[in-house]
Amino acid sequence: MVMAAEEEKSIQDVLSLPILLADRALKSAQEAESFKPENSELARQVTELSQLLRSAARLTTTSPAVYDRPIRRVSLDVTKALDRALTLARKCRHKKTNVLHHVLSITTAADFKKVSALLDSSLADTKWVLSIFNQDTDNWSINLSLPPIATTDPILAWVWPYIAAVHMGRAEAANELAILAQGNDRNKKIIVEENGIPPLLKMLKESGNLDAQNAAASALCNLADDPGRVRMIMDASGVQVVARALPEAPMRVQVTLVNLVARMVEMDADVKEEFGKENVTRPLVALLGMDVDLEEFKEANSRRTVNSLHLIVQINKEMVKKGVHGLGSGKSFEGSRHHSHRKDKEREMESPEVKLRLKVSCATALWKLAKGSLSNSRKITETKALLVLAKIIEKEPVELKMNCLMVVMELAAVAESNNDLKRAAFNPSSTAAKVVLDQLLRVINEDTSPPLVTPAIKAIGCLASMFPAKEKRVVQSLVAQLSNRNLDVAAEAAKALGKFVCDDNYNRKEHSQAIIEFNGVPKLMNLLRSNNRGPLHLHEIVLFCNLAINAGNSKALEQARVLSVLEGAARHVVTQHPDLRELFAKAIHQLTIYQAGIHTHGEV
Ligand SMILES: *[C@@H]1O[C@H](CO)[C@@H](O)[C@H](O)[C@H]1NC(C)=O
Ligand SMILES: *[C@@H]1O[C@H](CO)[C@@H](O)[C@H](O)[C@H]1NC(C)=O
Ligand SMILES: *[C@@H]1O[C@H](CO)[C@@H](O)[C@H](O)[C@H]1NC(C)=O
């Protein structure tokens, strides 16, 4: 490995040492008084090596951006070999007399053999390294012969020429790196250690060639499966390069770039925020909504129709500030002005499969960007993302629909702990929120697949505090899910309902009444009795507690003997969740007021 201190030296400085050593070794060998034939062979090797080193030095001065990593690495070994050659040649300065031990003479002869072998290796390595930089510009291929330096690490013999060729803008080489970086962790490690990331980013940024961009994006995508490597991509300005390349790239490249964004974001929280700062959410939402027609929402917006995405963002911001909820343009979402006519044409011509893949990837990336990030969730909801998501959830294929539900779920989860975002994005009186809620409820009522129903239920739960007392259809839909045959879905429904009746919810009494009215108690009791989910049905028990507190005099609770259920569960639950002690005490107290004398009351 080249040490950090070596890295700081300029490549000319690195090469000047072996060149100097070569000159001295040559002089000593020419002046030698003993072992003359060996010294003249040594002089021949050193001369050749010196010429090659000077070629390398010239190469690095003519093209300042040359990929010098292999030269640095090889020069370390070359320097060592020349150092030994010099020492050996110096030993031969004086004519040897008979006094010289025979043994000494034998070791010197052996030394000449060793040094000669070292110089041969250095010659082969240096020739090979130079051949990397003399690649045929029309007819690209790499030197398949293995240099001595790569015998311990054969992968270097591929990685170096490929990286050098990526520096020279060769798409084929980026493609080869992408293949090398598929799956094999050791290859990825070497590509990164040998500085493969910066030229790939440069290619992505500067190449106008679709194949080159795509190959560079694929290689980066394959490398971005480890937090350390994702950091290195970020440190090499990868977030900026990727975010800026995304809007203008051809659609096939966009698919890869969006996958890269999703991968990087998932690996590192700082990367997530960096991508947000680069406003990557905008092209992602725009691409997700490229075929979504938002014409029908035009009425909802009293403002003038505005085409540009940028203005929509501004307008939404103003509306949020003024507490008005409305949306941007009524036109199709693909409004960004800088998309040229040519790009629109290309877009129309892309196959539906590519378009679908792109949208699925965009939804995944938005989902990862929103997850746990207030600033990203803000940026996403400030665009017309909610409308786009709702339209897609309404009728697109399952995978895309599922990913969009995940986006909504993550946005709702962030909004749950931030009132500003909740009010700005999910106020039920705004069109966007209404449309999304309708779709969430439709999924809950009509879909059967748990991966679709679960995020919809979770999202509704996160927004529980937003629903007015008279909004009963939401509670009704959730109550129905308490008897879902999938017990995990049923438990999610119980958890979500818990947020409608908890102490923080202003309308908890009305919601509790509604749950009881829609027959929630017997359903919940059945769910509690199902043993499949382990002994502790925490969400169900907590929901019962809150129903008892808010509607203690309900006949349904009495009939279901909820008091004895709570008393039976209390000790066990409170041992594991001491924070629930007060809730249990309050619930049991409330029930005993109405059902006094029926039970002996256990201590909580
Ligand atoms: C490949 O490298 C070897 C040294 O290992 C060199 O002798 C040969 O000329 C190179 N081949 C090409 C095509 O550059
Ligand atoms: C490319 O290389 C092949 C074989 O090495 C050769 O036959 C062909 O003529 C070369 N083409 C160009 C354009 O140099
Ligand atoms: C992202 O968008 C905001 C708001 O429009 C803008 O102020 C900021 O400069 C943008 N950031 C970048 C990196 O373009």
UniProtKB/TrEMBL annotation:
UniProt keyword annotations, A-Z: Repeat
GO biological process: one example: cell surface receptor signaling pathway
Highest rank taxon of the organism: Eukaryota
PANTHER family in the cross-refs: ARMADILLO REPEAT ONLY 4, ARMADILLO REPEAT-CONTAINING DOMAIN-CONTAINING PROTEIN
ARM repeats: 195-238
Domain DUF7792: 12-134
SMART domains: ARM
Protein name, entry field: DUF7792 domain-containing protein
Entry-linked SUPFAM superfamilies: ARM repeat
Native source species: Sesamum angolense
Region spans: Disordered: 326-351
Pfam families referenced in this protein's UniProt entry, alphabetically: Arm, DUF7792
PROSITE patterns linked: ARM_REPEAT
The keyword Repeat is assigned to this record: yes
